[in-house]
User: Fold these one by one.
Assistant:
Number 1:
Amino acid sequence: SSSRWKKVQPLIKSFALSFVHLLDGVTDGSTARFLLQRAELLLPLLTQVPKQGKSLIQSVLSIWSSESVNVPTRVRAYLLLHSASSTFPDAYLALALKGMIKSYRLEIGNRCNPRSLQRIAFAVNCISELSGVDLSKTYTIAFVSIRDIAIALRVALLSKGKEELGKVYNWEVINLIRLWGKVLSAYPKESGLRPLIYPYAQVTSGLMRLVPSPRNYGLRFHCARYLIDLMGSSGVYIPVASALLEALNCREVLKGKGGAAENARKQKKNGRGEKGNEKRIVKPLDWRCILRVSDNSLKSKHFREGVVNQCLLLLTKFLSTLSRSVALPEVAYPTLAGLRRFGKTVSTPAYSKQARQLVRIAEENCQLVLSLRARLDFGAKGVADYSCIGMSNETVCSRSHI
């Protein structure tokens, strides 16, 4: 509104345009970090020239999401985005948050391999932290994203077509599930985001069971892990164990010996050993970067070992989140019954031993909860104050075996 601003505004626009052009063209990491640090001084002025401010935020977003940029420069770019969003939320928060989610979905999370895991984890942590600046705006963005996944999942459930399944069975969707699980776990008690826990759990559970084929167990393990993490942070019970027990009792695991071993024996008997195929079959599986496995891997020993290890690990984590609950003996009963049945039916002694060991430890924890519960002088009907149950929970936490 000042008369002097009309004289200064063209200069600021010109300087901002030149600054963004220089920032886009810089390839040296130290120079880019210096410019990003100095760009923070421009933020108050650029609130009055929204077009130039938007250009600066977009330029910083391209640096933050670029694969060729080193980690210190990427961190400096995020610090600028966080400073702009927290200091001037009305001008920059929605722009920065939506831009980061779009870049994460299309450039960072659209694929996954051992080299990109660190970059994906960094992006998820950045978006999760920035989401806490204004939970009401985060709720709107998260609701739209989860709704879009739910619509695509519904279409895939109705049609069962290969193209429709491909729209939900990909890294872009799975990494979005990972992102919103992280955000909901970071702010589990806040009323702004808590209503999203139920639809998120429903969509993730539906995605986990969409195609029950053993080839897609990688996707099932990812979804189960995100739900268990959310369950542990929010205190909301999410039934995950049945899907893991179903994977644990698949035919490939229970029969003990895959078709690859039988084929290898036949080839050896016929004098036609194929060393190249054997090497490809016995290659270990990195479940962090797997959504579906090939037919050759499906018949291998590494697949069976990986499925058993992943299921038992996730079931241990699932029971661990319940270890401080007074309802542990009742809630854990179906899971322990399924593990006992698996221990009796599986033909591999090592798998049976691992399952029995988990059952034994969980039963000890259930007995501990029952002994503490027997000391209470009230029933479930007339509980008015849950503080004494909390004291028991602390005791369980200090003596828990899981």
Number 2:
Amino acid sequence: TKAAFGDYQCNAAMSLGKRVGKPPRDVAVRLVAAAQLADVCEAPEIAGPGFLNLRVREDALASRLAVALADPVRLALPLKRAQRIVVDYSSPNIAKEMHVGHLRSTVIGDALARLLELQGHLVVRLNHVGDWGTQFGMLITYLREVAPAALETTGGAARLDGLGISDLVSFYKQAKKRFDEDEVFQSASRAAVVALQAGDPACLAAWRGLCEKSRAEFGLIYQTLGVDERLTERGESFYNGGLEEVVRRLDEAGVLVTSEGARVVFPEGAQPGADAQAGPPPLIVVKSDGGYMYSTTDLAAIVHRATEEKAERVLYVTDAGQSLHFAQVFAAARRAHLVPDGVSLEHVPFGLVLGEDGKKFKTRSGDTVRLSDLLAEARRIP
């Protein structure tokens, strides 16, 4: 707020005036008379049609600061009943560079985890990285063609000698183009995915190498941002063993139906047909080709966090664009009783990083802005 409007401003009188049928300024007068703020604020000021401007008393602020400074570890924050809380944040993709969109999830998630710990909670920090899927089949197939020497292994992982994360991003873009245009390459990529899922040693070594290369790059970003070192990687692949069980339990609960060849969960009360087209889309759990979705992995992660991590709350720190996804995943988990009633599942949304055109912030070439470039520029500016 502007200095002229005090330290805080309250506009509650505006909406209350409409509800009680009185001028907002009259309501503001009654609010001031009823409020007990003398030990914290100077006399409230009524401005304009009914805004309340509040200024914190300097002696009250000094007193609170003195109490906080006397407890340098916890800043005198009141202890709450300790809960075991999982905070899921950052979540970049393997073989891709972190971009500007990852900044908010990383910083907000880390800050939330620290605040919760100060309140006395036991916090588990999890990094749900994207480390599984068709893209790895494409990338492994392309590397075999253009850089086979990079796939030579040490300790069960491809060394990827001479390749940086930016090289892998470039290779992925070229592999994706080939995948979309070349049926032979597409078939080879799909075969590589099947082999990877089946535990083929060569494919697993390539995948491990990609993960290690990416992990090192992510670590540099986290070090620059001062992210807590206890952030633990739990990628999509970690939950592979629980996917079939999740599908079975959804089916047994009667919430999983077949629609256009896929296995989906419709919003409660909705069913396949014309009426469903007007509402939210169903949550796809198993694709028509039998493949699993992000939703399937998220449901398996919920089960693991509730049963193995013993979480009482699970916070997902992602952009607001994923609000519908998490609402559907949480609802499906509740309906199928995948999680105990006492476990709180919460999406912590934040706004997208937008450019001047109102769209997701990208470079002039149309690529997302690399987080490493943004941080380098921030260090350069005095």
Number 3:
Amino acid sequence: QDDKVIRGGAASPPVGRSLAYQYAPYERNNTGQMLTVVLAASLATVASVAAAECKTDKFSDLSQYDSADGAYYLPRGSPCNPDKVPECPDGKLQWDVFLQVCKKVTEPPSFNGDSSACQNDDTLACQSWGDTPGSSASLGALSQATYTDVDKGVKIAAKGGSDSRQMVLELHCADDATQNTEKPILDAEVTAEKLYHFLWVHEKFCDGGSPGGGGGMPISVGSILLILVLVFVVCFFAVGVVVQKFVRKAEGMEIIPFSAYILDFPILVKDGFMFIINKARGRNDYTPV
């Protein structure tokens, strides 16, 4: 009994073995949680990069249509559609508009009106109707922009503007050169929804924006990151199985790395949801240790 401790008349396991038993699960769970955090962060990065991609099936690179001047500037008095825009008397725009396709807007240095709403790094389009502070508004957030193919071209939609404003910019293929417009125009406004619909018609938007059409789609940065994450996960578990099987002589489910943590994961997710729900309801079913 040299390696045993007698407590309450019962023999305890060896002290060294007891400590290993106590701390090994903690280390395994800690490592498993760290792995989950790393994978979650990697997938989040992939998702954010993929969401920021400015392309569709027909248009492999919409960023080519961004203005090199920082924004397409539609000054007051620019053409608009009086039949669909309430604030378009005589077919002339009543405020200044700045918009881009794939990146944030930057107003021209010579602009003298209020452009505070255009300064946000997340602004895809904005309007200004005066010189005093507060006389501008974002029409849509770049982070909420979506790019969708439509019959005549592509549709860019962005929500998240000032006071729930939202915008749509459609790039349409022109039937011939006579329909080409130099810049987008405000084609419609849905006042109840605070929706501003811009239309740009030009031959350069035909056939996916290139003579050869949309063509084969190049692999994107998001796709590359996703492939790397999936390859890492597969290699990690493949190497882990080999190590568990032949080095640690594990058997059964134990040959899978972090098998205990993986099996507990659904229960942990359920506990997390229940904890949030109970907190929201003002209940506390957890007993402090």
Number 4:
Amino acid sequence: MFGGGLGGASAVNYNTNGDYEVPQCPTDGISEVAWAKGRNILACASWDKSVRIWEVTAQQTFGAAGGYTAAPKVSYNHESPALTCEFSHDMQYLWSAGCDKKIKVCNLGAAGNPTQDCGTHDAPIRHIKWCQELNMLISGGWDRTLKFWDFRQGQQATTLQLPERCYAMDLKYPVLVVGTADLHVLIYNLQNIQQTGAPVKTVTSNLKMQTRCVSIFTDKTGWATGSVEGRVYIAYIDESQSSSGKSFAFKCHRVDRGHNESDIYPVNSIDFHPQFGTFATTGSDGTFVFWDKDNKQRLKQFKPVNIAIPCARFNYDGSIFAYACSYDWHKGHDGALSTNPNKILLHRVTEDEIKNKKPQGGGGRR
């Protein structure tokens, strides 16, 4: 069965892993978290229309709650729910977009951090990614388009048609992966995108139900897809690796109810560790899990937080894992309780939790 209940009428105990709670979080569901490149600056986009930024500092002595402080720095609003946000490589700008169909930019290097509209789609914008090598922002929307923005020229550079609405997107230059409705997955090589405008590969997801998230491997040889059916698929760009059996699917974010029954929850986010190439998944079951795809192992499953985890991201060096605790509407209106938290927590990542482990006695997933 799909997605049983989490929590109840009383206040939710969401910090079950003893992690640091970021102050002044949004008042509604958190749709995305993003880290700056090279610095511990954190941003989030939320259904309360806000986009917020914090500066995170590690404490010299580790006490309770992970040993961090997060100082609120900037906050601004969209006209409708904000769905996505992204820093520029030099951290001078933060872009955001959402249901108002607009891309906004916040100038973090100017006094007062002014914001302005800088791009539009004909429907809500689900994801944006900054490509430093092209000096362009890439946006994917529910209008079935992928747009490239060159803000040096102050204009849109090009628009590519997608087969369906953009639901998921990740970029590690030169690889761009876009997941859309109807299970389409498109892989682009950004080194020749301006010449061809076409994906180098288009596949149908090996998972049977709606795509929720995609994430490119640290070494850029493939990607992982997560779906609403509590499964992840590991895929490779090179056909020879796929045909050799390296690609595989596995079940996750399911709660065993006994008698061969389990509750099945969406896989909401996947993110690969920048150093070790292992990865994290989060789900509507309220758990986050660290995995090793090469040895097909679960490295660590953390305690359930009693509310969905809609998004999460490692920081630039993989030492901090930021995850949101808020309702993700997987149960519709019935799950929208006044007691639902809207929090972002910071987990201090240890090497023992995330580093690849050699399988013992043949290994395999546990």
